[in-house]
Amino acid sequence: MHRKLFIPGPTEVEKDVLEAQLKPMIGHRHKDFTALYASVLGQLKEFFNTSQHIVVIAASGSIAMDIAGRNLVRAGRKTLCCINGSFSDRMSKAIKGCGNEIDILEVEWGQAIKPEMIEEKLKENEYDLVTVCQNETSTGVKCDLKAIGEVINKYPNTLLSVDAVSSLGGDLIFPDEMKTDFVFASTQKAFAMPPGLAIVIYSDDVITRGNEVKSRGLYTDLVQIHNYFEKKQQTPSTPAISLLNALDYQLGKMLKEGAVNRYKRHLEMAEYTQKWALDNGFKLFAEDGYASVTVSTIENTLNKDIGELNKTLAERGMEIANGYGPLKGKTFRIGHMGDHTLDSIKELLDNITEIWNL
Ligand SMILES: Cc1ncc(COP(=O)(O)O)c(C=O)c1O
What we know:
Elements: E1 4-5, H1 15-19, H2 31-47, E2 53-58, H3 63-71, E3 78-83, H4 86-97, E4 101-106, H5 115-124, E5 129-133, E6 135-136, E7 141-142, H6 145-153, E8 159-163, E9 182-186, E10 197-202, H7 204-210, H8 222-232, H9 241-257, H10 259-279, E11 283-284, E12 295-299, H11 306-315, E13 318-319, E14 321-322, E15 331-335, H12 342-356
Parallel strand pairs: 1-13, 3-4, 3-5, 5-8, 8-9
Antiparallel strand pairs: 2-10, 6-7, 9-10, 11-12, 12-15, 14-15
Helix pairs in contact: 2-9, 3-4, 5-6, 10-12
């Protein structure tokens, strides 16, 4: 039996989106591909109301962590990595792993990174790059991206990289308005697509910076990817054409709904889930006012067995997620992202209420 995915990615993919992958194959150097890619990028730019550049790469979102580490930091310059959970920690490891020196700004997991904390660090040190995770999928914490963007914008040599893997297309993220330089996401989360594509939205300053960096690698060379597109409107290596067909189709649906309505639907699902948790004696792991709209991380204050719950849920065709990494067992996570609706969330929570006798 299919288990409906209420995990924070991969999430449910509608049948018509899956079917959009079934179009016959085309050559990636043919004008048909140029037209497909132009349609995908045009729709993404419209959805995110941005004049920044966008590329879609055949990889999961983590590729963008290496791209940031290899293109956004000059030799001998430092990066400030903001950490408040497993994925922001992973980003710091990627930046360091690309041979860069990092400083860490870490807050207790469950807390949000605040703009004033970043500003304090920027006053003390010069940074080529600041990395933040807009939506920490491990802790269910979001940040105030607009306020962070405003602070970093005061420092013209400092770029802002944003991990929006589990929020882009669900939460409201507008790169121009929020003054971000590099935003990345994976398709298997709030885009409600199969995994396999990374979406990267980047500013002109990113390319200027990339040109000042020598070891950009090959697959991670954003300057080459950018220049190739400027010249030929295609990708330097073979793209995931079937996934791009599905993305093109799904973006049509997303534009029909609209970015703001899509956000409101996500907010409604998040608020319902979070109220359910509090009403039933649980606590939210996120600090007040910073709970994610795409994933709720709920403190397991009633000491429930999450593994057992998932076994029973599986018999009913549903699945939620245990806590991530060190938070396993101490928390559980409910993904309410992509094409889920308030009704599908209510159905899930009614089932959990019944199974746990809440
Ligand atoms: C916030 C965040 N960043 C990065 C990643 C890694 O993305 P991917 O698995 O698509 O490489 C994830 C995956 O869950 C995530 O939630």
